[in-house]
From TrEMBL:
<keyword id="KW-1133">Transmembrane helix</keyword>
<keyword id="KW-0812">Transmembrane</keyword>
<dbReference type="InterPro" id="IPR011989">
    <property type="entry name" value="ARM-like"/>
</dbReference>
<protein>
    <submittedName>
        <fullName>HEAT repeat domain-containing protein</fullName>
    </submittedName>
</protein>
<keyword id="KW-0472">Membrane</keyword>
<dbReference type="Pfam" id="PF13646">
    <property type="entry name" value="HEAT_2"/>
</dbReference>
<feature type="transmembrane region" description="Helical">
    <location>
        <begin position="6"/>
        <end position="28"/>
    </location>
</feature>
<dbReference type="InterPro" id="IPR016024">
    <property type="entry name" value="ARM-type_fold"/>
</dbReference>
Length: 370
C-alpha cells in the first residue's frame, strides 16, 4: 500500500511538472509575440523618421513623445534597441547622425531616468548609449556628466558600459575623470578590459595619452598597467618616461614587465643594457623578467644580443628557450651561425632551435612536404 502511495505522489509530481512546462512555454511564446510586435512598431516609426530626414525634414514631435513615454520601461528600450539594429544596417551615416542629433532631448531625459534605476537597467542603458545614441561630432555636456554617475555605480556591467559610452564620446577630460572613479577598488575591472576600452576612444589619442600620463601617479598599479599597455599599442613617443619605470627596481613587477615589452616594440638604445642584464639574471624567481626581455631582444642588433639569446636558449625554463629560439629566428641567422646550438650538447636547446627552424620552413613552403 505504501508503495502505491509513493507511486501516486510521484505521478502527481510528474504531471505537475509537465503542466508547469506547458504553461511556461505558452508564456514565453506570448512574451516573444509581444516583443516582436513592439519591435515591428518601433521599426515602422524609426523608418518613417529616416525617410523624413532623407527628404530634408526633421523628426516628428510625436516620435519623440512616443520614445519618452515608452522607453522609460526596459522592455520597450530593448525592443527599440532591436529595431535600431535592423533599420540601421542599410542607412547612410549622415542620416543616422542627424537622427541621433535630433533626439538628443530624448536621450538626456532617459539618461536621467535610468541613472536612478536599478544597476542592471542602468547598465543596459549605458550599453545602449555606447552602441547608438552618442553624437560623436558634438559634445553633450549634460550627457557627459550623467555618464559619470553610471561609472560610479557599484556594478561591473554598469561601469564598463558607462566607460564604453564615454570612450565613444571622445572627451579626454571626462575619460580621465571616469578612470579615476573606477580606480576606487570597489568594483574590479580587468586591466585588459580597460586597455581595450581605451583603444576604442573616438577622440585624439595623443591628447588622451598626454592627459593620462600627467595623472599617471594618481592611479593604482592596476590602472597604471592598463594605461601602459594602451600607450604601447598607440605610440612610441614615451620611451624616456617608460624607461624610468623599467629601471625602477621598486616599481610593481607587472609595470616593469609592461615597460620591457614596450622596448620590444620600440627600439631604444639606452634600454639595451637593461634588457641584457635581465636576460643574464639566473635567479629562478626572476624568470618572467628574463622571458619578456628575451622576447624584446629580437628587435635589437649586435653580437652581444646574439650571444645573450644563445645563452637563453639553454635555459631550463621552456618559455625562455622558446622565446630565445624565436629571437634567433627573427635575426635570420643561417645554419652555420646556429651550428653551435644545432650540433651542441644541450639537447633541449637543440630540439627547440630545430623545431623553430622546421616550423619556419613549413610556413614559408605553405606546409607542402612533397
Amino acid at each position: 500500500m505504501k508503495v502505491e502511495i509513493i507511486i501516486y505522489i510521484y505521478g502527481a509530481i510528474c504531471i505537475s511538472m509537465i503542466g508547469f512546462n506547458i504553461v511556461y512555454n505558452l508564456m514565453l511564446r506570448r512574451r516573444d509575440a509581444l516583443f516582436d510586435k513592439r519591435t515591428e512598431k518601433m521599426r515602422q516609426g524609426i523608418r518613417r523618421q529616416f525617410q523624413l530626414i532623407q527628404k530634408g525634414e526633421k523628426t516628428e514631435k510625436n516620435h519623440k513623445k512616443f520614445l519618452m513615454k515608452k522607453l522609460k520601461r526596459i522592455n520597450y528600450l530593448i525592443a527599440y534597441d532591436n529595431a535600431l539594429q535592423m533599420e540601421m544596417k542599410d542607412q547612410k551615416a549622415e542620416v543616422l547622425e542627424k537622427y541621433f542629433s535630433q533626439i538628443e532631448s530624448v536621450i538626456l531625459f532617459l539618461a536621467v531616468r535610468y541613472s536612478k534605476k536599478d544597476k542592471m537597467e542602468a547598465g543596459y542603458f549605458a550599453f545602449f548609449l555606447s552602441e547608438y545614441a552618442v553624437n560623436r561630432k558634438r559634445e553633450m555636456d549634460s550627457l557627459l556628466g550623467l555618464l559619470l554617475i553610471y561609472v560610479k555605480k557599484d556594478n561591473l556591467y554598469c561601469r564598463v558600459n558607462g566607460l564604453k559610452a564615454l570612450y565613444h564620446l571622445g572627451d579626454v577630460e571626462n575619460v580621465i575623470t571616469a578612470l579615476k572613479m573606477q580606480d576606487d577598488d570597489r568594483i574590479y575591472i580587468n586591466q585588459k578590459i580597460l586597455t581595450e576600452g581605451l583603444l576604442t576612444f573616438q577622440g585624439n589619442h595623443d591628447d588622451l595619452i598626454h592627459g593620462l600620463w600627467k595623472e599617471f601617479n594618481r592611479f593604482t598599479d592596476h590602472t597604471k598597467l592598463a594605461i601602459l599597455n594602451y600607450i604601447r599599442f598607440k605610440t612610441g613617443d614615451y620611451k624616456e618616461e617608460i624607461y624610468g619605470i623599467m629601471t625602477d627596481e621598486k616599481a610593481d613587477k607587472e609595470l616593469r614587465l609592461s615597460a620591457i615589452r614596450y622596448f620590444g616594440k620600440y627600439v631604444y638604445p639606452p634600454a639595451l643594457k637593461w634588457l641584457l642584464d635581465f636576460v643574464n639574471d639566473h635567479e629562478p624567481s626572476h624568470w618572467e623578467y628574463v622571458n619578456v626581455a628575451v622576447s624584446s631582444l629580437s628587435r635589437y642588433e649586435g653580437e652581444e644580443v646574439i650571444r645573450a639569446l644563445k645563452g637563453a636558449i639553454k635555459s631550463p625554463n621552456w618559455y625562455i628557450r622558446y622565446s630565445a629560439a624565436q629571437g634567433l629566428e627573427a635575426h635570420r641567422l643561417n645554419y652555420s651561425e646556429l651550428f653551435d646550438i644545432i650540433n651542441g650538447e644541450d639537447r633541449y636547446a637543440r630540439e627547440m632551435m630545430t623545431y623553430r627552424l622546421e616550423a619556419k620552413m613549413l610556413q614559408e613552403t605553405g606546409g607542402d612536404n612533397s
